[in-house]
Amino acid sequence: MKWDEMRESDNVEDERGGSSGSNSSMGMLGGLGAGGIAIAIVAGLVFKVDPTQLLGFLSGSKNAPAPQGLVKQPIKDRDSAFVKSVLGDTEDTWGKIFKQQLQTTYQPPKLVLFDGSVNSACGSAKTSAGPFYCPADKKVYLDMGFFKYLEATAGNDADFARAYAIAHEVGHHIQNLRGTSSMVRQLKSSSSKVKANELSVRQELQADCYAGIWGHSTAQRGLITDKDVTKALDTATQIGDDYLQRQSKSGHVVPESFTHGTSQQRVTWFKRGLDSGNINQCDTFNTNQL
Ligand SMILES: [Zn+2]
User: Which terminus of the chain is less hemmed in, N or C, by CB atoms within 10 Å?
Assistant: First the structure.
């Protein structure tokens, strides 16, 4: 994946090594009680990430603690250059798509890099919660420990899998801009638990489809290869809810409790975006064929 050819975004806020929390209390979702946040969390976040592993990684951070309010720090390392490049490329891609396919202007999200814990308008979150999107402040929150975790899952060349995770969260931002998120919230408030969960699945699969649309654009410009795509699909297979449940519950799969869709569904919708590049192909809410 040729991420170094992508334009770097100015919308990344680096809060790593900041004062928003101590690493020692990781391992629980803490103040992450709001139902809205739970919906926004990407599949990967449901992994049982061993907090001690993350601690080991995070303790390597050389950033000095910053005073509260002064969170902007110079970003020079590879991981943050990568994040800026991928986010910048989603901005360019969605800017064009909004103009061409929706006749409107794209408002990009901010992306907050954090380690330890972070405060968002949706509540506080710990590293163990992984990346998420907060509709209330229109920010994507990404902890670098999750990147390490993806590397362990996707192997050495985890770049596109990482990019996919970012693009999926940006997908939730697009749902927020288009009013999909509030529609889902409203529908869920008057739905049964099973129905509400199905709505969550449709919302997650649409974010996967949107991630695929970004992939379509990068493929057209020769920035990703078939191998990158195969890898991303492989990762999607590994982070479907059925896979997660099999991993954690010795083979017993309970579809009612799915929130992100099965592995096959995630692959299907990612590919639909990837193959078409068309936002109208991502209507997961008006189909009987997930
Ligand atoms: Zn998601």
Answer: C
- pTM score, two decimals? 0.76
> Within a 10 A sphere around the Cβ of 187, how many other Cβ atoms?
13
For residue 134, the CA-to-ligand 1 centroid distance in Å is 11
Query: Is residue 127 within 8 Å of residue 25, measured between CB atoms?
Result: no
Report the pLDDT value the prediction gives residue 254, as an integer from 0 to 100: 53
Measured in whole angstroms, the distance separating CA 197 from the mean position of its chain's CA atoms is: 19
Q: Count Cβ atoms below 10 Å from residue 38 Cβ, excluding itself.
A: 17
CA of 65 to the centre of ligand 1 (A): 30
pLDDT in tens, 112-155: 998 888 888 988 877 666 688 999 999 999 888 777 777 777 66
Take residue 164 and report the two structure tokens written for it.
């996919």
Tens digits of per-residue pLDDT, 150-179? 777 766 678 888 898 899 999 999 999 999
CA of 58 to the centre of ligand 1 (A): 24
Ligand 1: centre distance to CA 39 (Å): 7
Tokens of 261: 């869709």
Supply 265's token pair. 């569904």
**Rounded to the nearest whole angstrom, what is the distance from the C-alpha of residue 129 to the centroid of ligand 1?**
12
